[in-house]
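Can't attach files on this board, so I'm pasting raw text. These are the components:
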Amino acid sequence: MCTRRSTRQGEIELELADRLAEQQKSISVAEFFEKNKHLLGFDSPTRGIITTIKEAVDNSLDACEEAEVLPDIFVGIKKVDKEVYRIIVEDNGPGIVPKQVPFVFGKLLYGSRFHQIKQSRGQQGIGISAAVLYAQLTTGVPAVVISRTSHRNKAHRFEIMIKTEANEPEILRDEEIEWDRMHGTRVEIEFKTTLAAKKRLLEYLMYTAVVNPHARIKADIDGEVYNFERVSEEAITPPKAILPHPHGLELGQLKRIASLSDDNLKDFLINSFSRVGDKNADEIIGGSGLKESRKAKTLSNEELKKLLESMQTTQVPPPPASQCLSPIGEDMIIRGLDKEFQLDFVRSRTRKSKVFSGHPFIVEAAIGYGGKLESEGTARILRFANRVPLLYQQGACAITNSVSEVNWRAYNISQQGLPTGPVLILVHVASTNVPFTSESKDAIASIPEIEKEIVLTLQDLGRDLKMFLGRRDRNKQFEERARAVCSILPDIAEKVSQIVDKPVPDISPLEGQIMKKIVAKKGVRDGYVEILVNNYTSTPVSLTIYNISPEDGKDATPKPDFVDKIGDDFNKLWKVEIEPDGMWNARYSGKSGGTLDIRGVEEKKLVVIDLDN
Amino acid sequence: MDKKAVSKLLEIADKWYSQIQTAQIPYISLPTRTKQNIEYDEKTEVWKYGEKETMRTASSAKSALHLLKMAYVVGFLKDQIGENRSSTLREMYYISEGWKKAKFSAQDESNMLVEDLEIITELSREAFHLRPEEDGASIYGPVRIREQTRRGDKDIHCRDDVGEAGYSIPNNVERLTFLENDAKFVIAMETGGMYARLMENGFGEEYDAVLLHLKGQPARSTRRMLKRLNNELGLPVVVFTDGDPWSYRIFASIAYGSIKAAHMSDILATPGAQFIGVQPSDISEYNLPADKLTEGDIAALKSELSDPRFDTEYWRNQINLQLKLGLKSEQQAFASRGLDFVTKEYLPARLSEMGII
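---
Top answer:
Structure tokens for the assembled complex are below.
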């Protein structure tokens, strides 16, 4: 570009380049993120508080999962000063060994899971240290971390900051302290923020509770306490890491893995990748044109490229998803949702695992209807990736796109892009490598394989919902019709009574029949006390019938199952089962009849009438 | 009579009352009023309702409303009889405006309800002090009658004492007594044109016939009049209508009883009445001017083939012939052969064929 310029100009530019060169130096990751906070989800103070809590809670849940303990998590937000809040997240996880603590919290891109191929919430080791950095930037107050690994060790309390230029932790303080937790970690971070996003924060906690039914989360938001109880006492079996799959590999990765191997090419392929066996290893090598005896670490860049190409074009079975993925499960999703929303209808599906570019993934989804959901407006969409709620950038997410792609009208749900009405849609994508649109992990990228799975799952659930709505409408219709009849019956009774000039009879038993209830009647006829129970419902009922009267009912047919004396009266008890549209009756000689009481059926399904009063 | 009517009405209300009291959803059962449920009664030689019953139970909103309306009608009629008032069906329809939910939505509904009550109580609507709406038709012939009118009894000779239009049959035929007659038979005609033709041509005088104008589908009073002329004076009745399916139904309602009022067949139907014409065979025989059958006509003819009242060889032949011809003719089509043809040729020929003259 400069070559055609005059020498004179060239000299000047050279001088400029020299000057520029003096200014050029490496930037630490910490410095980079200091300038690009939005990339990590710290673009505003309101959002910062959620990101911080999310990162801390994700870490806690991951840690508990790995240690197979039921998570007990405390989230605290305390107002320290105007616009300054102290965020506390504490868990009962396995704790962090003291020597690692400063790195986990004081160095960006320090993590244990980055190179592992399994489903986990956090991965890169940026999240929590970014929060520490953010605190440092806004208030300058160091993060406090308390961690204890077992009852044999004392807890350590650290005060940590990050040296941004070097991306290294700075330990301001490290002391051993007494701590009432046997093991666990507590982190306290203080930064400038507001509670403007409190609603969203609660949503985050609630959604987290929904997909982590084994966790108990207690939140104290500036004095207001929220409890999210666990509904399952079963700890999750932690997913196991698997070897990388030949189809989901990039050159850099291959280079790194190869450099660490002492094997020849064939053994390297078999030992370092999942689902590669004798046969397809030969195939890969054949396709690459390389010699089988070559040591993997001696391969040149060009040779690695050839190898990679062959690896990706050779048929290899899909990666073993069952070990490395941990879906929530249909039952757990339903329990989690039901606990928070008390839905009228909820169904869930966990699909079989599928693969995109060599990464296994599982789609799970649920549809809820009615209950505590708002009856108008857009449906509530709960997006999850690896059990982590996604709160921002709904519109940019593959889940949202897939939800809009389904023709909800076919399932009797109105739709304006997204479905509307009292509908809840939950979608969970679990994968060893969730393809997020950005590092802030707000939205899942549009991957055709994933979107197709989501659409199929939702369509499947939509059919269930349609059936439910159909049945509900029929019930509603029946009730409307019954109500229409019941509004006319009193008029008939009144008119007829007027014609025959008699008092208006009680029509509640008629209403009972029409509304399909249990109707029990008692009356004295010709010296006999008669008790008559009709089951007009559509299900069999087992009832206990109590009749307290001065008569002992010795000649009763059928015989009471139990009789005892209460003062001057006898309490006669029958236990009966009545089929739908069935009838049961009893009679005994007497002229009082006393009182009748029926148990074993909901009050609203029961009508008891005394024919003599 | 009034006492009986009131007690019959009370019986209905009492049934409902005890149904409600014993926790039974109120209901009423009625004979099914369709052609599938009319049967020939050997003894009275008329068609009556059969065994089939339709039960109306107040367990659907529609039936409950029907029962409520019925209850209102029962109450209204009971009060009306008690107060010795009377009203027409149309008046009752307007009175129902004040019955809120029980208000009739159409006149048809009140008519049906009253017919239902007639069936249940085995009384005619006159017993409930309900006056028929429809005009009675007119007769012309050598019969002297006595009519009880509001202005006392009047003796009338139905040929000598009346004008060109004849004597108008009153709504309540029971108010008439027959005094004397010189008649040999009665000829009932569908149209006014034919009635006037026979009068002008002196057919009545020539054959000692009573001419009766049906005015289309005959009113109850007209049918009752025919029944009494036949029954009490022993006069044969012949019916002369257009040659189309609708006219055959006029004949059927006179001779066999109507489907809608099969419960009244005993007093309204004239089992001996005979159909004189226009017969489908006349259309071809006399080459009468004719119109093509419409789709509705064809459907009506086919429906008549499954109507038990038309289940005779004569009617099957005639109806099938007409379907084959695809034609229908009016009574007055005989005019194509001259104004005298019908009285000089056609009717005398048919009447002697039928053994009446």
